[in-house]
Amino acid sequence: MNFKSIAIALFTLLVSANIFAADKKTEPEGWWGQPYPSQFDTSQLTKQLDFISVQGNQLVDGSGQQVIFKGMNIADPDKLLREGQWSEKLFKEVKAWGANIVRLPIHPISWQGHGKEAYFKLIDQAIIWANAQEMYIIIDWHSIGYLPSELFQHPMYDTTMKETRTFWKDIAFRYSGVSTVAVYELFNEPTDQGGRAGKANWLEWKAFNEELIDIIYAHDKKVVPLVAGFNWAYDLRPIQQNPVDRKGIAYAAHPYPQKAKPTVKSKENFFKLWEEVWGFAAKDYPVIATELGWVKADGKGAHIPVINDGSYGPQIIEFMQQRGISWVAWVFDPDWSPTMISDWNFTPTQQGAFFKKEMLKHE
């Protein structure tokens, strides 16, 4: 046998071996062998938390007593995992600051990149760790843009209406009956960016949120869907004429300090503008300010609309207390602004120290 014949024979043998190996590898992963989705195993939880529901304009526990959430956002679990900061220690620290709820901002890019099943493991861990500390969880589909036009502020937020429907279908099925998961924030910050992301239409947005709520309720009615208004989850005025036509829901607000622009920056003027644009909703519905916070003009990551000298903190807390509004400060991470900690030793920033003091008041 000459060299050419030997080479051809070896090549044929190698190709055959690779095909056989590939067949062996893919055979158990064939589509017909894939298991059906599974639900979260509640036997992993050590504490029995009440289910949270809506009664009038209040969130209430199992005995009908009003619940006011005061907590913090953490960074996307995928980010924390990549940085080596995803651990029970983080949740214990959040609890030590006085929080009774944790918001998980799940970015489409991290959901897509990590993969659904692997990401479920992160959410499962968050539920177990939060439950052990007797804290509730908000699962937040963390996109920014106008979903019906599928135009977004940054590639990290890119998603589709189909993916969003599927996300909530899968989440609602997996965590049905898990009381620690109290709130589903359907879409983080809807905005058409002044027309750069299409043209926002409230009736269109309302109808899509109602569709998502129907999907969620088909799996689980013991959870509170949270609906955001336009202008990056700041403007709820459309609900005065056309509220979301579903029971048991709450509304989200992200009232960062530079969203309201009074001519004279007095507490009374800020209160007036906040009341007109989003605070009024608390008269009829539960409202959760799922993002709020500030940083000084020369602080880390200072950008519109979060810049403030610190006067915002006491004012926004007083405003929300008067109306029974729950809140979740942004963000318990040293990278994303406005930060609540300056390092992974959990050293508080200016706003971190303020919100920590406020949360501990109510422990």
TrEMBL record:
<comment type="similarity">
    <text>Belongs to the glycosyl hydrolase 5 (cellulase A) family.</text>
</comment>
<keyword id="KW-0326">Glycosidase</keyword>
<dbReference type="InterPro" id="IPR001547">
    <property type="entry name" value="Glyco_hydro_5"/>
</dbReference>
<keyword id="KW-0732">Signal</keyword>
<feature type="signal peptide">
    <location>
        <begin position="1"/>
        <end position="21"/>
    </location>
</feature>
<feature type="domain" description="Glycoside hydrolase family 5">
    <location>
        <begin position="60"/>
        <end position="333"/>
    </location>
</feature>
<dbReference type="InterPro" id="IPR017853">
    <property type="entry name" value="GH"/>
</dbReference>
<protein>
    <submittedName>
        <fullName>Glycoside hydrolase family 5 protein</fullName>
    </submittedName>
</protein>
<keyword id="KW-0378">Hydrolase</keyword>
<dbReference type="GO" id="GO:0016787">
    <property type="term" value="F:hydrolase activity"/>
</dbReference>
<dbReference type="Pfam" id="PF00150">
    <property type="entry name" value="Cellulase"/>
</dbReference>
